[in-house]
Amino acid sequence: MAKIIVACGSGVASSEATVGRINTFLEEHNVKGVQVDATDFKQLPSVLPDYDVYVWIAQPNQEIEQIAKDHGIAVVNGMPIFMNVNPEKSYKEIFRALKAMQKK
What is the dihedral of CA 18, 68, 100, 96, to 10 degrees? Predict the structure, then answer.
């Protein structure tokens, strides 16, 4: 199962709303086998290695970027999804990351 983590400053409103939008998008496109979770930025360093895709609301710092790089985790700007303003590019990046995982 592919796993996506969405993180914002508090892990409540912004990330949960974005998780909901991603889940709806995946359902509408009949994408199965993807778990989407929310967390707060403070917990992210400890949980990020368990995920395949990181969708950020709070821009990642160097530590987070390094963890993602070290573990081959795709990093996607989630602000367009959260704001619901031209989210297509972010969704395409998520799809690309999920497809790349299937090839491994």
Answer: 40
pLDDT in tens, 39-79: 988 899 999 999 999 999 988 999 999 999 999 999 999 99
3-state secondary structure 42-91: CCHHHHHHHCCEEEECCCCCHHHHHHHHHHCCEEEECHHHHHCCCCHHHH
Q: Give pTM, 2 decimals.
A: 0.94
Domain extent at residue 69: 2-103
Counted domains in the chain: 1
- Give the CATH number of the domain where residue 44 resides: 3.40.50.2300
Amino acid (1-letter code) at residue 94: I
